[in-house]
């Protein structure tokens, strides 16, 4: 497989959800263009409309996915082969899929899903939550292993910080490029991920979701003011 990212670098995840002020393809394109100006080497994007527009207007490699909730199933990141093929057809250079071993709605196993995608020449990013899932995904033929789902499966490490321990253990055991993803909120954390062996670092909300960035400031300031008032009372 040709590695689309020969140099270590930053991928910016440009995703939004209905109800958010920046929901919509033109906003995601503008965020992706801003990411490119800032030095990102790739974009992670959700849904056919965003993927096609970003691919056309930004000119960076796109890691595509779709998030689909299917009743009765826990997995939601590109949960079926059909959805993965649609993501690729929309223009994604790499398709990101849930690579846990949880039940898939189309009844295919993870290894069958990866095999089907690879037989069509589609590069696959395996979104995992624990080391064992990364090892299995490598064996099944994935091209990149990402720590995306750590903290989002019941059996993975639950913490507010990024799972850099998983980055390090994957880097020690897997020969594929390791992608550090999930709750990376500062440049220092991104550099630490590289130091531990990540090839790529995906940053989402800390760059592309202004309402959450704002809340991180206002909540910390509110809590400071509450403590200050508390101090005056004593
Ligand atoms: C768990 C899940 O569904 N993760 C999604 C995967 O595409 C996105 O919602 C995240 O924004 C992305 O992984 C980047 O993470 P963060 O926004 O924490 O930098």
Automatic annotation (TrEMBL):
Pathway: Amino-sugar metabolism; N-acetylneuraminate degradation; D-fructose 6-phosphate from N-acetylneuraminate: step 3/5. It holds the Pfam family NanE. The keyword Isomerase applies. GO terms for molecular function: N-acylglucosamine-6-phosphate 2-epimerase activity. Its EC number is 5.1.3.9. InterPro entries: Aldolase_TIM, NanE, RibuloseP-bd_barrel. Belongs to the NanE family. HAMAP family: ManNAc6P_epimer. This is Putative N-acetylmannosamine-6-phosphate 2-epimerase. It comes from Paenibacillus eucommiae.
